[in-house]
Write a sequence for this structure.
């Protein structure tokens, strides 16, 4: 059974800092990996999706990488802003329209 | 661009009552997923449908049932509600295009009193 872990559980940084969020998974036979953002009490916004055949994906100040052999993915946020404050969740997708398995998230606070 | 629509957005019920949550996927999407997110928890998969047939089943209680209709919208029926059913319920949809990115709706917040 796939297990997804995110470290750290919470992170507080000053505005402008570059930061890395970590996601690890136990079964390397993944189909894809998605990163989501969730604001308190709100829905899930998909940020980036990396297929198992890809190494990284970029969108604006965000860059996500995937290393299947080590069972790790990272989300890099450049030049952080207070508006980036949210919980970031990674989720692993199995093959064939299978459900996502979520990590417990990293709660990010960017101080102005 | 059209997104996943969920209704109602908020719902308050008493214990032992029933509730029905609705999900309207993105047009042309053929797969619908239901997730439950308890307070302070990560989303947990309940059930999914592909082309109106149940595709996968997760930790859905026997008191819950769901279906996908001919217009691809889905309904999650919850009976004999318990306090522990209070949670945010998400619906997601995807297209069978090889990527199968799941797009999430805004969620229905259910409070059981």
């Amino acid at each position: 059974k796939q297990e997804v872990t995110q470290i750290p559980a919470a992170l507080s940084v000053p505005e402008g800092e570059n930061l890395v969020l970590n996601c690890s998974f136990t079964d390397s036979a993944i189909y894809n990996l998605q990163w989501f953002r969730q604001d308190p009490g709100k829905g899930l916004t998909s940020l980036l999706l990396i297929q198992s055949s890809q190494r990284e994906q970029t969108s604006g100040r965000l860059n996500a990488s995937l290393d299947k052999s080590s069972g790790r993915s990272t989300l890099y946020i450049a030049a952080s802003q207070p508006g980036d404050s949210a919980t970031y969740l990674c989720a692993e997708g199995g093959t064939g329209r299978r459900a996502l398995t979520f990590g417990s998230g990293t709660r990010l606070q960017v101080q102005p | 661009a059209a997104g996943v629509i969920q209704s109602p957005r908020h719902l308050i019920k008493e214990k032992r009552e029933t509730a029905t949550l609705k999900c309207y996927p993105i047009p042309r999407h053929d797969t619908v997923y239901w997730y439950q997110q308890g307070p302070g928890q990560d989303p947990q998969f309940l059930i999914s449908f592909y082309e109106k047939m149940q595709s996968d089943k997760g930790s859905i209680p026997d008191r819950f049932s769901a279906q996908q209709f001919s217009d691809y919208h889905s309904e999650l029926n919850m009976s004999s509600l318990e306090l522990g059913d209070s949670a945010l319920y998400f619906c997601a949809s995807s297209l069978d295009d090889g990527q199968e990115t799941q797009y999430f709706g805004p969620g229905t917040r259910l409070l059981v009193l």
